C-alpha cells in the first residue's frame, strides 16, 4: 500500500466519522428538551434519587453495574437506577436530549463528540479492554483450516473481504476490526462491515450465514459456540490481542450541566459502582452466578461463565471507576491509528484527568 493510499483512506474514515457524529448530535439537538442537566432531587418517601441510564445490550462486561442495581448497592447510596436500551452512539443523543441522565457508551463516542464541539464528561469506566471478541460460522471455521493459536495475521487474512456483522457502524467493534486488519498488515478496506443493529441481529446473521464473521461482547460468542453454529475465532476480551488490552473502551458519560448540577450524585454513583466492580473480581463466583440467573438463564451456563471469565482474565472489565491516564492514552492512540480525529484538549472531558 502506498503512502498516498493510506492518507486517502484515513481522510475517508475521518469524513465518515465526522458525518456520523454530526448526524447523531444534530438529532440530539433537535430532541433536546432542556431537562438533561437538571438537578435530581431525592424522592420524599424513599430518599432515593432516580437516574435513567442509556445502555447497550446486556453483556457480562456490564456485570458490575447490573449487580449494583440488582443487589441494592446503588440503593444503599440512595440511588435508584433504570436502564434504557440504546445502541451505539445513540446513548449520547438520548442523554443530550434529556431522555436519559447517563449513558454507558463506547469511549470513542465522547472523544469524537468533543471534536464536533459537544462535551460529554466521562465520569467512570465500565470496560478497560475491548469487550468484543470475534466469531465465525462453523462452516467458515472448517474452511479456514486454522487453529485457536494461529497467528492474528493468518486469521485476519482469512477474514479479508468477508461479510462481518457488527451492532453499529459507530460502535467500538467496528473500529476494533479495522485496527486488527491494520495490526495484521492489511488494509482497513478489507473490513466488509454489515451493520446488524444489535448482537441478536449479528447472531441471526451468523446462523443464516448472511455474514461470515461477527464481533460482540461476551458471553454471546461463547454461547454461539456452545450451540454449535459458530466458533470463537479471536478471543479479544480474553487478551489474545495485546495491543487491545488496558485500553479504555466503555465509559459512563453525562452532559456538562448534569455533571455541574449533580456532583454529589455522581460521587455516590462512582462509590456504588466501585463497590460492585471490586466484588466482580473478589467474589467472582457469587457475582457470576447472580448474573447468569438474572440475565442469561436459559443460555448454556458454562458458556456464560466462560465468557465473563475471559473478560476478567483479560482485565477487560474495569476494576475501579477511576480512569487511568495510561488507559485513556491507549484509547487515543487507538483512535488515531484508525483515522479517528482526536482534539488536543481531549483530557478535559475526563473528570479523573482534567485536573
UniProtKB/TrEMBL annotation:
Gene3D superfamilies xref list: Periplasmic binding protein-like II
Q: Which Pfam families match?
A: NMT1_2
Where does this chain mainly localize? periplasm
- Which compartment or compartments is the protein found in? Periplasm
A GO CC term?
Answer: periplasmic space
Look up the signal peptide feature and give its range. Answer: 1-32
Q: What are the entry keywords?
A: Signal
Family of the protein in this entry: Belongs to the bacterial solute-binding protein SsuA/TauA family.
Q: Protein name, please? A: SsuA/THI5-like domain-containing protein
Amino acid at each position: 500500500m502506498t503512502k498516498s493510499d493510506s492518507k486517502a483512506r484515513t481522510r475517508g474514515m475521518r469524513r465518515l466519522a465526522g458525518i456520523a457524529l454530526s448526524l447523531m448530535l444534530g438529532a440530539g439537538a433537535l430532541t433536546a428538551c432542556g431537562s438533561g442537566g437538571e438537578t435530581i432531587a431525592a424522592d420524599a418517601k424513599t430518599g432515593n434519587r432516580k437516574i435513567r441510564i442509556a445502555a447497550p445490550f446486556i453483556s457480562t462486561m456490564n456485570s458490575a453495574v447490573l449487580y449494583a442495581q440488582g443487589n441494592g448497592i446503588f440503593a444503599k447510596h440512595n440511588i435508584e437506577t433504570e436502564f434504557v436500551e440504546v445502541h451505539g452512539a445513540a446513548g449520547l443523543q438520548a442523554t443530550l436530549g434529556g431522555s436519559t441522565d447517563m449513558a454507558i457508551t463506547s469511549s470513542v463516542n465522547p472523544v469524537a463528540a468533543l471534536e464536533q464541539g459537544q462535551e460529554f464528561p466521562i465520569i467512570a469506566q465500565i470496560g478497560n479492554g475491548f469487550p468484543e471478541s470475534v466469531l465465525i460460522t462453523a462452516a467458515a471455521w472448517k474452511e479456514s483450516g486454522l487453529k485457536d493459536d494461529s497467528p492474528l495475521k493468518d486469521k485476519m487474512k482469512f477474514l479479508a473481504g468477508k461479510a462481518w456483522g457488527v451492532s453499529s457502524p459507530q460502535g467500538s467493534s467496528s473500529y476494533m476490526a479495522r485496527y486488527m486488519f491494520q495490526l495484521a498488515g492489511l488494509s482497513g478496506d478489507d473490513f466488509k462491515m454489515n451493520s446488524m443493529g444489535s448482537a441478536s441481529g449479528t447472531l441471526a446473521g451468523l446462523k443464516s450465514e448472511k455474514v461470515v464473521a461477527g464481533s460482540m461482547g461476551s458471553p454471546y460468542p461463547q454461547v454461539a459456540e456452545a450451540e454449535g453454529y459458530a466458533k470463537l475465532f479471536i478471543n479479544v476480551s480474553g487478551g489474545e490481542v495485546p495491543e487491545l488490552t488496558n485500553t479504555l473502551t466503555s465509559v459512563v458519560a453525562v452532559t456538562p450541566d448534569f455533571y455541574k448540577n449533580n456532583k454529589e450524585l455522581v460521587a455516590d454513583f462512582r462509590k456504588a459502582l466501585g463497590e460492585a466492580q471490586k466484588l466482580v473480581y473478589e467474589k467472582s463466583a457469587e457475582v457470576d452466578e447472580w448474573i447468569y440467573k438474572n440475565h442469561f438463564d436459559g443460555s448454556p451456563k458454562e458458556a456464560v461463565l466462560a465468557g465473563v471469565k475471559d473478560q476478567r482474565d483479560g482485565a477487560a472489565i474495569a476494576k475501579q471507576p477511576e480512569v487511568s491516564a495510561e488507559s485513556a492514552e491507549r484509547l487515543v492512540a487507538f483512535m488515531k491509528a484508525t483515522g479517528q480525529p482526536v482534539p488536543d484538549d481531549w483530557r478535559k472531558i475526563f473528570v479523573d484527568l482534567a485536573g
